Amino acid sequence: MDVGRRIETVLDNAVSHAEAPGAPPLLAEAIRYAVFPGGHRIRPRLCLAVALACGDDDPATSEAAAAAIELLHCASLVHDDLPCFDDAPMRRQKPSVHAAFGVPLAVLTGDALIVAAFETLARGVTRSPTRLAGLVGLIARAAGSPAGIVAGQAWESEPYVDLVEYQQAKTGALFAAATVAGAAAAGAPPLPWRLLGECLGAAYQVADDLRDVACRQEEIGKPAGRDATLGRPNAAALLGMGGALERLKHLTQEAIDVIPPCRGQDAMRTEIEAQTRLFMPASLRAMA
Amino acid sequence: MDVGRRIETVLDNAVSHAEAPGAPPLLAEAIRYAVFPGGHRIRPRLCLAVALACGDDDPATSEAAAAAIELLHCASLVHDDLPCFDDAPMRRQKPSVHAAFGVPLAVLTGDALIVAAFETLARGVTRSPTRLAGLVGLIARAAGSPAGIVAGQAWESEPYVDLVEYQQAKTGALFAAATVAGAAAAGAPPLPWRLLGECLGAAYQVADDLRDVACRQEEIGKPAGRDATLGRPNAAALLGMGGALERLKHLTQEAIDVIPPCRGQDAMRTEIEAQTRLFMPASLRAMA
């Protein structure tokens, strides 16, 4: 099965558990709506690519880790879109969860997805039970406080924002989790893989900033120009389009340079080149 | 160390991790505010009591399970109090989290507490790693969809509410988790302990309904009469005070009757009698 199919299958299994008989029907519907259809599934792809580069001796474990990371990503999108944060009406070319189901169900959908992430992990990691504690720890660290995506979002409520902590937590943490969890899922030491994830997270953040400034809503599936509207820092606004594209190129090369020695190093390089192309919508790819 | 101290210590450790250097200061403050000072800590007490009744051969594991359950309980209080749900201005004799810190930080505090629950579990279960997957599964089941506290809250957004599913999910699930996780943490089969948790959950729900109808805000630390205001079912309103007290007595006896055979059966009976007295505020205890 190709990587994309593996990811959709394991996510479908996770969502099926959450919508099992007895579930409140609207909550079940909202959970599926928040996860499918997905975006490029960049984080779980990265997780599985690293696992493969490390031998992937237990595919059920690496798939569970990949799914957990994507479920947490989906949860963060649902909560970040809420009226009390970005108040985003659209996401992935359709109404955001709170626009479609109301604020109460959007709050609960995010909550249920966070729980489902850890449940999926525990259910999938059966052949290598001693890897579970490490994986829960690595993935929880990327999700919660002090330095995960929840903390990243919380910096927006602080009177003084540490910009590096903010972007590292809000975007970098889950990319770093994708690489370290991929390694840990395959029984390899996770730490050497963190820098790669952090570089890719930083590159993704620049690409996202470029999209926000340069693309129309139809192409990116959510309103454009939100950073300016919400007063958030944006690399393309700070460095100009040319400067931001230069920075993106630099970060991509840095990511390739920091791939740790492993059997699948060449394949990993190809994968990262392919993934970083996915970061940007078609209209910007020609410029990069 | 007595049980109460053990619970506060393990919760303090969990919160300390979430507020470690690098955390957004207001988020860190809100997380601690949501967990301390606590209520009666009924669920973690129950979890530790069951673990003890089953031999408690790995106290770090049972403490981690107890803390995870209490953190999830605190998360649910923070989110349920939000303006889009109960819009509760007070909780545990002080302003609710959103009243004190604003809605965005209240959403994120709940999210961070859910993540912290699983992180605490993974960190604490080190001596018996093969117990971790089961514990994550049992506790996640009580928290998420289809039948955990998130699902319970989601029934309030449904046009047709299944009352049994609603109360079982909203209150019963976490009590059941406390008993089954207590057994699993001690390496005992969890399933025989589920019924005890469900009985106690049902008893607690009746006691909570009685408090809502019969007590003043000063005594219960949150506004009284909310069920009538919010149009929610309430046993004291349905059965009358006398009927509800009768039902509470019946459920407490049933709980005692269904304690599974175990070394600590007598101590367990004493503990349950003590706990069910805690369910009710002083002004109602004389009537029960």
From TrEMBL, chains A, B:
<keyword id="KW-0808">Transferase</keyword>
<dbReference type="InterPro" id="IPR033749">
    <property type="entry name" value="Polyprenyl_synt_CS"/>
</dbReference>
<comment type="similarity">
    <text>Belongs to the FPP/GGPP synthase family.</text>
</comment>
<dbReference type="GO" id="GO:0008299">
    <property type="term" value="P:isoprenoid biosynthetic process"/>
</dbReference>
<dbReference type="GO" id="GO:0004311">
    <property type="term" value="F:geranylgeranyl diphosphate synthase activity"/>
</dbReference>
<keyword id="KW-0460">Magnesium</keyword>
<keyword id="KW-0414">Isoprene biosynthesis</keyword>
<protein>
    <submittedName>
        <fullName>Geranylgeranyl pyrophosphate synthase</fullName>
        <ecNumber>2.5.1.29</ecNumber>
    </submittedName>
</protein>
<dbReference type="InterPro" id="IPR008949">
    <property type="entry name" value="Isoprenoid_synthase_dom_sf"/>
</dbReference>
<dbReference type="GO" id="GO:0046872">
    <property type="term" value="F:metal ion binding"/>
</dbReference>
<keyword id="KW-0479">Metal-binding</keyword>
<dbReference type="Pfam" id="PF00348">
    <property type="entry name" value="polyprenyl_synt"/>
</dbReference>
<dbReference type="InterPro" id="IPR000092">
    <property type="entry name" value="Polyprenyl_synt"/>
</dbReference>
